[in-house]
Amino acid sequence: MLYIMNKKILLLFVLVAAFLQGCKLDPPVYGPPPKEDWSASFQPLGVGSYWKYLKTTAEQDPDTAESRVTGDQPVINGRTYHTVYTQLTKFGGESYFYTADSAVTVRDYSSIAGGYIQIKYVIDSIGTVGQTWTEKITDDGMLNGYPARVVGTVIENNITKVLNGITYPRVRHTRMQLQQDKGSGFETLATYDYYIAMGVGVIENIGVAADGTDLGHSTLLSFVIKNNDIIIN
Q1: Would the N or C end of the chain have less CB density within 10 A of its end CB?
Q2: Phi, psi of 30 (to 5 degrees)
Q3: How many domains does the chain fold into?
Q4: What CATH number has the domain bearing residue 110?
Q5: What percent of the chain clears pLDDT 70, i.e. is strictly above it?
Q6: Pair 143, 113: CB distance under 8 Å
Q7: 183 lies in a domain?
């Protein structure tokens, strides 16, 4: 049963980690927005910003995922999100990013969960190694009928990391533990390590199930960051 659940977690988290598969909402109409410099942000969201990832898992052929900020800004539960469209070889979809209070949250639709899941994977003001935060993974805190949460921890901060021949300074390493309570307390089902570069975004994501099963590995191949006019809450 744990193995089956971990496979479900793979689908839930990998879709989010790679900016995949959402439901498009009609964006609201705004007046002239302010100009924003994303160089000091852990998740740039300027319109036209682009990331290309290499995705690998133990049981599938390698694939590439190309993600781009579209400029659509739907309002969900009173919050203005930025839309990112991701295209893989066989399918594509949208995810929604919310930036406020120095934190970045990604929201995505999952048919497995029967609704939206959300992950707050970095908080700028929480940068001391060992610091933690806890968030609901869904709007009501339930996943497949049981209480679920995501516990984030800062593992490393302000490190330099080399990936695919590119050197990234100012990198923060966070670890997200997906936990669920089926009656005997919260237990960790899967762990995902995020490496986020200041001014770039997520450069690497590694997923491992509680039993050691490989849940996927994404690394950034190339990117283009745009500093253009956008809405900032």
Answers
A1: N
A2: -125, 165
A3: 1
A4: 2.40.360
A5: 79
A6: yes
A7: yes
Q: Which domain holds residue 135?
A: 2-224
* 140 found inside a domain: yes
The two tokens of residue 96 are: 């929604």
Residue 52 burial by CB count (10 A; 0-12/13-18/19+): exposed, middle or buried? middle
Give the chain's radius of gyration (CA, Å): 17
Position 210: which residue type?
A: A
pLDDT band at 228 (very low <50, low <70, confident <90, very high): low
Six-digit token string for 119 = 């992950």
**Residue corresponding to tokens 């900032």:** 232
Asked if 53 and 218 count as a contact pair (C-beta separation under 8 A), the reply is yes
Q: How many CB atoms lie within 10 A of CB 15?
A: 22
Residue 231 lies in a domain: no
User: For residue 26, what is the DSSP state?
Assistant: P
Q: What are the structure tokens assigned to 146, written together?
A: 């049981």
- Does a structural domain hold residue 232? no
Please state whether beta strands 146-163 and 166-181 pair in parallel, antiparallel, or not at all (unpaired).
Answer: antiparallel
Query: By the 8 A CB rule, do 16 and 117 touch?
Result: yes
Answer yes or no: are the C-beta atoms of 11 and 195 closer than 8 Å.
no
